[in-house]
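Researcher: We're teaching a course module on how sequence relates to structure. For the next exercise, students receive a sequence and then see the predicted structure as tokens, so they can try to spot secondary structure elements on their own. Here is the exercise chain.
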Amino acid sequence: MEQGETDHSAVRREVFEEIGLVVTVGDLVGRVERPAPRGTFEILDYSCRSNEWELSPGDDAADAMWADGATFATLDRNGALTAGLADALRAWDCLPRNE
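Model: And here is the predicted structure for the students to work with:
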């Protein structure tokens, strides 16, 4: 977050910078803490909606994709997700669904 920025404005900015989507930010769905070089990072995760579908990874993202439940489960099984992501999403009942 930048100084003086609200959570919602930070989420909108970061999502646009990282994957090129304009989003409407919804409710807080969960929070995690991760080790940082000096202390910890507190990460707040919000639900978001967008009418856009094309993802464009920014310079700090190796890749971006939409994943249904089956694809997400395969990525999880293959160790291709950020450590702890699947467990956090499962605990928050936010796993992708097959629809």
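Model: If you want an answer key for the exercise: The chain has a mean pLDDT of 92. The radius of gyration is 14 Å.
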